[in-house]
Write a structure and sequence with these properties.
- It is built from 16 helices and three strands.
- By secondary structure, it is mainly α.
- It has one domain (4-206, 215-435): NCX, central ion-binding region (A middle domain of Talin 1, Up-down Bundle).
- It has a three-stranded antiparallel β-sheet with strand order 1-2-3.
Length: 448
Amino acid sequence: MYSPVRHPLLAVALALALTAPWLATYLTGSADSVGVVGVVAITGLSVLGASFLLAWGAETAEKDVPRAFAIAVLAVLAVAPEYAVDALYAWTAGANAGTERGIEAGNLAVANMTGANRILIGLGWSGIALFTVYRSRSGDDPAVVERPGFLRNRVELDRDLALEIAFLLAATAFAFFVPLGAGIGVVDTLVLVSIYVAYIAIIIRGDVDAHDEQVGVPRYLQRFSKAPRIATVLFLFAYSGAMIYVAVHPFAHGLEEIGLSAGIPPFFMIQWIAPLASESPELIVVAYLVNKARSTAGFNALISSKLNQWTLLIGTLAVVYSIALGRVGSLPFDEKQAVEIWITAAQSFFAIGVLANFSISVREALVLLALFASQVAVEFWVIRTVAEPAATELSILLLYGYTAVYLLLGSVLFVARRDELRWIFGRTVSNARDALPGGSESVDHADD
C-alpha cells in the first residue's frame, strides 16, 4: 500500500503540474505578457515535467516491447524539437534557393545539426558518465567499477549495446563522405535513413525483458492490466512529446534573445545555444535513469539519440529542402559547414572508440568534455576578436586541427580494441540474421 504523500500518482500529478503554466500560456496565446525571462522559466519547467513523463512512459513500456525499442522511441521523442528547428532552416533554404537568405539558412541548418550532435557527445556522453561515477558514491550502482590509478574509475556498459555501437559506426563512416558531394542530397537521405530503418527492424524483434524490477511510477503502472497499461504508455508518450515540442522552441528562442542582448553572435547562438536547449529533454531523462542506478538504459538512450540524429536528422534536411524547392535537390552549404560535418564525424569516431570496450572511464569522459569545450571556447574567442574574413579562415583551420586530433585518438583506440570491435560486428551480424524472415523468434541478447 502507498501512503498518500508517497503515492506514485502524486509524482505524475506533480510532473503534469510543471507543464501546466506553459500549456495555459500556449493555449491562450499570452506569451508576450509573460516576458522573455518568464517564458524561459515556464517553458524550462514544462520541459522538465515532460521529460519525467517521457522517462516513465519508456520504462513502463519495457514490460510489453523490447527495451532497446522503448529507448529508441524515447530518444526520437526527446530530440524531436531539434528536428523541427533544423527543418525550419532547411525549408527556408529551399523556399529561397539561390538567394543570400537561402544560402544563409542552408548553412544554419547544417550548423544547428552539427552543434546538436557534438553537444550530445561532448556534454551528454561525458557529463552523464561523470555524473554516474559521482552518483555511485552515495548509492549502489553496479555499473560503476572502481579501479586503482588516477581518474580510472569507469562506467561498465551492457554488451547488448553492440548493435547500437555498430550502426552508429556505420553512420559515422558514411558521414565523412557527405561533404564531398554537392550538398546533403537524396543519396545521403537514402543511405542514412536505411541504416536507421535496419537498426529498428532488428531491435523490434528483440526479447522483452520482464525480469527488471522497476520502482516508483513505472512499477505502479506496470501492474495495470495490458490494455490500460498500453493506453497509459501511449498517453505519456503523446503528451510528453507534444509538450516538449511546443515548449522547447520558445525556450530556445528565449535563450537566444537573452544571449543576443549579452552580445553573443547570432550564428554562435544558432549552432550552440539553441541545440543545447533542444537537447535538454534527453539529458534530463538520462540523468533521471542514472539517478535510479540504470546507467545502461541511460547510455542506451544517449547512443540511440546520437544514432537517430546522425541518420534521420541529416535525411530530414534533404527531404524538407526538396519539398520547399519543389523538386529533388541537395541542401547546399559552404566550406566551413563542410568542415563542421567532418569534425562532428571525427568526434563520433573517437567517442565510439571510447565505448568499443563497453566502458567509459572518468579520464576518457574528461577528454571528451575538454576537447568539446575547448573547441567551442576557442572558436567563440576567434569570432569575438578577429575580423572577417580572417575569423572564418582561422575557424576553419581550428576545426581541421580538432578533426585531426579526434581521428588520431580514435584510431589509437580502435587499434588497441580491435578484438572488441570484431566481437561487436560479429554480434551485430548474428542479430541481423536472426531478425531476417526464417530467423529465430527473437534477437539473441545472451552474452557470448
